[in-house]
Automatic annotation (TrEMBL), chain A:
Belongs to the phosphatase 2A regulatory subunit A family. Keywords: Repeat. This is Protein phosphatase 2, regulatory subunit A, beta b. The keyword Hydrolase does not apply. Pfam families: HEAT, PPP2R1A-like_HEAT, VPS15-like_hel. Residues 302-383 form the Phosphatase PP2A regulatory subunit A/Splicing factor 3B subunit 1-like HEAT repeat domain. GO terms for molecular function: protein phosphatase regulator activity. Residues 115-296 form the Phosphatase 2A Regulatory Subunit A helical domain. HEAT repeats lie at residues 115-153, 192-230, 231-269, 270-308, 309-346, 352-390, 391-429, 430-465, 498-536, 537-575. InterPro entries: 2AA_helical (IPR055231), ARM-like (IPR011989), ARM-type_fold (IPR016024), HEAT (IPR000357), HEAT_type_2 (IPR021133), PP2A/SF3B1-like_HEAT (IPR054573), PP2A_Regulatory_Subunit_A (IPR051023). One of its GO terms (cellular component) is cytosol.
TrEMBL record, chain B:
GO terms for molecular function: protein phosphatase activator activity. PANTHER family: SERINE/THREONINE PROTEIN PHOSPHATASE 2A PP2A REGULATORY SUBUNIT B, SERINE_THREONINE-PROTEIN PHOSPHATASE 2A 56 KDA REGULATORY SUBUNIT BETA ISOFORM. It comes from Gasterosteus aculeatus aculeatus. Residues 32-43 have a biased composition (Basic residues). It comes from the Eukaryota. Residues 1-22 have a biased composition (Low complexity). It holds the Pfam family B56. Residues 1-52, 471-525 are annotated as: Disordered. This is Serine/threonine protein phosphatase 2A regulatory subunit. One of its GO terms (biological process) is signal transduction. One of its GO terms (cellular component) is nucleus.
């Protein structure tokens, strides 16, 4: 590499290292790139300052390395970093991250092992985030090692970490086995397996937890025979650890291990442990089983699912802890979906549905709410008849639940039921309950209802009464839906039913309702077309420009800009322009601002209207 | 360590009742909505699950009426009777059975506490079994996932009416003059202790209070378990610090440790020093420090009083973990530093004074007046003042610039007047040094500015250098690519492709802009 050695005279290593070590300097002027005025305030505490200063220096480590060149980075900078590892955790974190991207700066893959000593020290510090980052960087640079370097430099490091005296280094080692295992010779592989075994039975629960959490990942890189001989025994041991925090991690590993093994071995090697985990005395472990249920189901295949997982799932749905029930309830749909096709319906009807029925009236609202978010999905699986007979009563019960979150979750999933039983059936059976909910005390429930309005479009009185609801969010959603409805039913219908209602609100004593008129007009004008807009809506808007509430007036300006493109140029010039000009001299500065915006905006749209008139006018 | 008072987080004051914030009343979707419904009950228990079949209890004759020959047999039967568990979440279920068990437990407690000669060897396994069956259970999930011990009401254990008596029995059993550690150690083993320690996570402060006293007795009487208990407490703390940040019984465990540390033999073993440096000091980083800070500071000071040579580790450790954003914690740290300085040996003080007073100076210049005030209060402490006076030559230059500047700048008058007092004290201590520093203050400031400029120049140079290098590298790469492409396709050299593609993207924009401007012209005419 040409010019790889930096300019020695300019940047002697001592100066740069001094920068990294400096504790006396008080002003961080690094990130500002020397811009005047960026200087942080003098009053900030000096220690705070040099802390962030040093942090910045570390973050610019690559700049320093680049200035030094690869040779001196290797021989001077890295040894310095390795020696001065005791520091603030933030600085160490930044260092650990930087070193992961240093390969080019030390001269490419053939020198990448130079980065190992500082990362090794970082992988032994107490602070978890620093350690994790160091491990991440080590995993990254492990890929850049040649197979020989991996055995000569990397693997010994893993071994040193794995046999460190303090738990931190052993914890870090757990994350490194899987990256070097596939690329080393078989003797070294045997050593690695031995080290992993040792760590799985470590004295410290922290290390066992780290090993358990990496068990699945490690299993994936092992040869199948070793998975059967080594991993299974480790898995069984970890899954019956004295600490539930270790046992629950084994459940996660169970998914990967089960995926690796041939079907015929699953029953003898994995299932006893999994059964035991599903009945563990600690709710945390059972929760984990429930949480990973879909993955487990896929990993063990249809036969075992039918014989073992169905009863296990039933138990989890009936668990004594609400946490576990909620986690299981969340999986109901996925579990049913993945059941083997041929007897899916029968299993659901005889085993799962009774539990689901009980959960609908669970004492814990979180459980009910979790169920409500997935229960509608069952209708697709069970088909029309079963849905009407068995599920609809449950939906109805949940629609009337005392907890708003449950009601909300049901309403938000109406569409999947619609697909199965059709809108007619849906509106007949659920509509009365939905109409009731339109008056719900919780605005989010009302909002959800409105969002599903176009789906239930026939029921208009509902929409209009809702349109008057004061809460802003509702108004937004309702006006949006008005547009969709008009698109569906056409302008004439709108003129007869909606427009009079909307315009009527312009005289409402509540200014929020008056603004609703404007919002509706914004939404409707395009769908209704030029004629209705100019003749019916525009006069109302123009009249409202005299409203005493400034919010209404500036919304008039906004509306005029919005409906401008729909109006003909004559109306624009003779009616809109004078009003906007008047508003532009309003006493309120917001009104003025929006009027001016509208004037400049309308001119432009006016012009474009002219252009489009020439080519093709839609009306 | 005979404290029986409840920790500061005692539930006795029902101040934080279930007031729902008004924002949540409006929209009905409280972030903790999941828990609200059950929170009112605020009781929980995981016990009932493991009761397979309910047995009908029949009252046994009273212990005090039993003839001596049958006493042990009856005692044993009562212990077995007390192994039956009841469902306390359903408060009306099996009231009769509950009453029988309660009475039996009461009798057992009284018998162990008052009469001699009851505890004979065959009773040990039965007693320990009864205790294990009742107290060992997986603690239920917290009712409130964001449980804040300072703000929220703890969830109380529903089965407390029985559980309390079981704990009471256990305690009396351990404290009985008849208690024989040599017999007990067969049953109170490592596994037992591990489960006992896990219970310290209970949210119920009454339970933790019992556990604390009980564990202390176990530690005192069963010598073989001591190292194991210490190791497991270590693990709990490390997990708390680095993994979960959640454990309800930290304060109680620290309280026990305070007295354990007190009993350490000298010189301190490496294991104990490691515990100080790698566990106790990092505990200061916990978010919930305020809950156990008093106990933690007590442990730290105990260490110092045992062996003054650990002082430097402690001070440097605290400085390393000094809170960066939380002023409330900063005040706690300053409080702990004062406790430490109160007992520090002058020879140790000299070793840490420099970094320590840099930090104190930083605290004095904190814009949060409570932090500044707490730091300035050090000068009201006679012993600390004498230490400062002895080392005035070192300390005054460290803090002078800060004091000088803050005295002119701080917004809070109390701080300003406190600083004047401190400056006055220094003036009286060493007026010559004080005058010198005042005189050189401006010069120092200038020097500092110059250093800053030099640093800025250095970094600017470095960055320019980096830019140049990057440019060179990309140019080299591009040339190489072009050469290759030309070699492969025989194309004439073209400008780098990314630039052309960018201008392609931009093309429609200028034309659109020009049409709009011309359109604007039309509109106005």
């Amino acid at each position: 590499m040409a010019g790889a050695d930096g300019d020695d005279s300019l940047y002697p290593i001592a100066v740069l290292i001094d920068e990294l070590r400096n504790e006396d300097v008080q002003v961080p002027n690094v990130s500002g790139g020397g811009l005047p005025g960026y200087r942080s305030k003098r009053s900030c505490s000096s220690r705070e300052t040099f802390r962030c200063l040093r942090l910045n220096s570390i973050k610019k480590l690559s700049t320093i390395a680049l200035a030094l060149g690869v040779e001196r980075t290797r021989t001077e900078l890295l040894p310095f970093l390795t020696d001065t590892i005791y520091d603030e955790d933030e600085v160490l974190l930044a260092l650990a991250e930087q070193l992961g991207n240093f390969t080019m700066l030390v001269g490419g893959p053939e020198y990448v092992h130079c980065l190992l000593p500082p990362l090794e020290s970082l992988a032994t510090v107490e602070e978890t985030v620093v350690r994790d980052k160091a491990v991440e960087s080590l995993r990254k640079i492990s890929q850049e090692h040649s197979p020989v370097d991996l055995e000569v430099h990397f693997e010994p490091l893993v071994k040193r970490l794995a046999s460190g005296d303090w738990f931190t280094s052993r914890t870090s080692a757990c994350g490194l086995f899987s990256v070097c295992y596939p690329r080393v010779s078989s003797t070294v592989k045997a050593e690695i397996r031995q080290h992993f075994r040792t760590l799985c039975s470590d004295d410290t629960p922290m290390v066992r937890r780290a090993a358990a959490s990496k068990l699945g990942e490690f299993a994936k890189v092992l040869e199948l025979d070793y998975v059967k001989s080594d991993i299974i025994s480790l898995f069984t041991a970890l899954a019956s650890d004295e600490q539930d925090s270790v046992r629950l991690l084994a459940v996660e590993a169970c998914v990967s291990i089960a995926t690796l093994l041939p079907q015929e071995d699953l029953e003898s090697l994995v299932m006893p442990t999994l059964r035991q985990a599903a009945e563990d005395k600690s709710w945390r472990v059972r929760y984990m089983v429930a949480d990973k249920f879909s993955e487990l189901q896929k990993a063990v295949g249809p036969e075992i699912t039918k014989n073992d997982l169905v009863p296990a799932f039933q138990n989890l749905l009936k668990d004594c802890e609400a946490e576990v029930r909620a986690a299981a309830a969340n999986k109901v749909k996925e579990f049913c979906e993945n059941l083997p096709e041929e007897n899916r319906e029968q299993i659901i009807m005889t085993h799962i549905l009774p539990c689901v029925k009980e959960l609908v009236s669970d004492t814990n609202q979180h459980v009910k709410s979790a169920l409500a978010s997935v229960i509608m999905g069952l209708s697709t699986i069970l088909g029309k008849d079963n849905t009407i007979e068995h599920l609809l009563p449950l939906f109805l019960a949940q629609l009337k639940d005392e907890c708003p979150e449950v009601r909300l979750n049901i309403i938000s999933n109406l569409d999947c039921v619609n697909e199965v039983i059709g809108i007619r059936q849906l509106s007949q059976s659920l509509l009365p309950a939905i109409v009731e909910l339109a008056e719900d005390a919780k605005w989010r429930v009302r909002l959800a209802i409105i969002e599903y309005m176009p789906l239930l479009a026939g029921q208009l009185p509902l929409t209009k009464s809702l349109c008057r609801v004061v809460v802003y969010a509702i108004r937004e959603a309702a006006t949006c839906n008005l547009m969709k409805l008009v698109e569906k039913f056409g302008a004439e219908w709108a003129q007869n039913t909606i427009v009079p209602k909307v315009l009527g609100m312009a005289n409402d004593p509540n200014y929020l309702h008056r603004m609703t008129t404007l919002f509706c007009i914004n939404a409707l004008s395009e769908a209704c077309g030029q004629d209705i807009t100019t003749k019916q809506m525009l006069p109302v808007v123009l009249k409202m420009s005299n409203d005493q509430v400034a919010n209404v007036r500036f919304n008039v300006a906004k509306s005029l800009q919005k409906i401008g493109p729909v109006l003909d140029s004559n109306a624009l010039q003779t009616e809109v322009k004078p009003v906007l000009e008047k508003l532009a001299t309003d006493t309120d500065m917001d009104v003025k601002y929006f009027a001016q915006e509208a004037i400049s905006g309308t001119r432009f749209t006016l012009a474009s209207l002219h252009i489009s008139t020439k080519s093709d006018l839609p009306f | 360590m005979e404290t029986t008072k409840l920790p500061p987080t005692s539930p006795s004051s029902p101040t934080t009742s279930f007031s729902v914030p008004s924002a949540e009343k409006v929209d009905g979707f409280p972030r903790r909505s999941m828990r609200r419904a059950r929170q009112r009950r605020s009781h929980s228990s995981s016990q009932f699950r493991y009761q397979s079949s309910q047995v009908e209890l029949t009252p046994l004759p009273l212990l005090k009426d039993a003839p001596v020959a049958e006493l042990h047999d009856l005692f044993c039967k009562k212990l077995q009777q007390c192994c039956v568990l009841f469902d306390f979440l359903d408060c009306v279920a099996d009231l009769k059975g509950k009453e029988i068990k309660r009475a039996a437990l009461n009798e057992l407690v009284e018998s162990v506490a008052t009469s001699r000669g009851v505890l004979i060897e065959p009773l040990y396994p039965e007693a320990i079994k009864m205790i294990s069956v009742n107290i060992f259970r997986t603690l239920p999930p917290s009712e409130n996932p964001e449980f804040d011990p300072e703000e929220d009401e703890p969830t109380l254990e529903a089965s407390w009416p029985h559980l309390q008596l079981v704990y009471e029995f256990f305690l009396r059993f351990l404290e009985s003059p008849d208690f024989q550690p040599s017999m007990a150690k067969r049953y109170v083993d490592q596994k037992f202790v591990l489960q006992l320690l896990e219970l310290f996570d209970s949210e119920d402060p009454r339970e933790r209070e019992y556990l604390k006293t009980i564990l202390h007795r176990v530690y005192g009487k069963l010598l073989g378990l001591r190292a194991y208990i210490r190791k497991q407490i270590n693990n709990i703390f490390l997990r708390f610090i680095y993994e979960t940040e959640h454990f309800n019984g930290v304060a109680e465990l620290l309280e026990i440790l305070g007295s354990i540390i007190n009993g350490f033999a000298l010189p301190l073993k490496a294991e104990h020093k490691q515990f100080l440096v790698r566990v106790l000091i990092p505990l200061h980083t916990a978010k919930s420090l305020s809950i156990f800070h008093a106990q933690l500071a007590y442990c730290v000071v105990q260490f110092m009083e045992k062996d003054a040579t650990v002082t430097e580790y402690i001070i440097r450790g605290l400085l390393k973990y000094w809170p960066k954003t939380c002023t409330q914690k900063e005040v706690m740290f300053l409080g702990e530093i004062e406790e430490i300085l109160d007992v520090i040996e002058p020879s140790q003080f000299i070793r840490v004074q420099e970094p320590l007073f840099k930090q104190i100076a930083a605290c004095i210049s904190s814009p949060h007046f409570q932090v500044a005030e707490r730091a300035l209060y050090f000068w009201n402490n006679e012993y600390i003042l004498s230490l400062i006076e002895e080392n005035c030559q070192v300390i005054l230059p460290l803090v002078f610039a800060t004091l000088y500047r803050v005295s002119k700048e701080h917004w809070n008058q109390t701080i300003v007047s406190l600083i004047y007092n401190v400056l006055k004290t220094f003036m009286e201590m060493n007026s010559k040094l004080f005058d010198d520093l005042t005189a050189s203050y401006k010069v120092e400031k200038q020097k500092e500015l110059k250093r800053d400029r030099e640093r800025a120049d250095l970094w600017r140079g470095l960055e320019e250098h980096q830019d140049r290098r990057m440019q060179m590298l990309t140019e080299a790469a591009r040339n190489q690519r072009n050469l290759q492409e030309r070699g492969e396709r025989g194309d004439p050299p073209t400008p780098s492709s990314p630039q052309t593609s960018i201008s392609d993207h931009n093309e429609p924009k200028p034309s659109g802009a020009s049409s709009s401007s011309s359109g604007g012209g039309e509109g106005t005419t």
